[in-house]
Predict the 3D structure of the following.
Amino acid sequence: MKPQILIVDDETRMCRSLQILLSGEGKYDVSFALSGDLALKYITGHDTDLMVVDLSMPGMNGLELLKRVKYTHPDMPVIIMTAYSSVKSAIEAMKGGAFEYLIKPFGNEEFLSVVERAIEGRKISHEVRSVKRSPHGYNTIIGKSPKMEEVFSAIEKAANTDSTVLILGESGTGKELVAREIHESGKRRKGPFVAINCAALPETLLESELFGYEKGAFTGALRTQVGKFERAHGGTLFLDEIGDMSPWLQTKILRFLQEREFERVGGGTPIKVDVRIIAATNRDIRKALDDESFRKDLYYRLSVITIELPLLRERKDDIPILVAHFLENKGKKLERQITELSSEAWHILMEHDYPGNVRELENMIERALIEAQGDRIEARDLQIKGSHESPSEIGEEIFFHGLWKVFRLFLGVEDLPLKGSWEMIHELIQSLTTELDHKLIEKAVKEHPNLSNTELADLLGTTRRILELRLKEFGIRKDTFKEE
């Protein structure tokens, strides 16, 4: 079904012009209403994905309509159309939840671009609310992109056999989750799933953990200890980061795969176990084979089935449903039921490269849930680690993006009507300056609650007198933030 768009303007010619433009794209179904009252009646009886509203209408104006729509349909994006003489009202509309504003006259390309972004945002919001699990029935592996479809297909094939599996993928791509799904979906699901990280232990300790040891095998071996192979009998042993295993231990693993038996450290009696081996590595296994740091014969034994996991930046279509999954799961854990993200927050999530892959996104959402102060996640709540940008640089980018949205109104200053424009521009700039003063002073007081007014003024680059006037004007009390 095509997205449903409603245009609201008291000028029939404008409505029909935009209707023809949007319908000509072949992607949208477009209707129009000539008043705010008619628009409210329309959306009561029709599913609507986007409203394009003119600010200046007789009767119910665009601001009042926006307020009512956001009350009854809080998730519906609303694009505001305005004239230059209504810039102040346009900014009020943005504060009231408008998706974007367009200055008349606007170009077709600009209009279509804004509409496309609004519809895409609506689609993402729907996915966030509706996705509960993977379409394949996996509770832990989320995705619907073509690359993940290949992974799901490989998991299904692996689950239907008892062959060894080698999972390749960078850290954070979900290698252990895939191994667990293969185990849980296969005939060994009633048996144990035992995992060990081969990169986390030194060689001698790893050997003891894998194969166990006999009493007296070494100093401190006061009793016989069963290893991971024996614990996994009847089930699956997952050897994570096997690419970091020493050549000597690789030989012992190869021997087990050939003979299906092993000896405990310090023992001489062969022990047979029924274990399926699933291994994984984040290393470039082909390079490791070329430089002979990984045995080719072991590789051939392990890679009967090979599953390569995609990087998150290679499947960004999955980010919305991953976010939905993490919001639900982490929200329950933290007792924070938040399902909405601002458009700026979505922009950051969709543009980030994710060097830490899905694990990084998961941690980011958990932190955002903790940081969020309202009922939705804002851009400031996202703290991206491992990025080429620091959190402060990201915040700066968002700030200047917002600032640009204001000042771009005046790029076509030669087209501004002379009457009233001078006062309007200066009122707007004054309003922006006051808001920035408020935010900066509040930030300074929060971060340095024990500084005197003179010290705070020096920090901000102003005078004590001006600072004290601003503190009084904004109702900021230093004792609220002062440390005991």
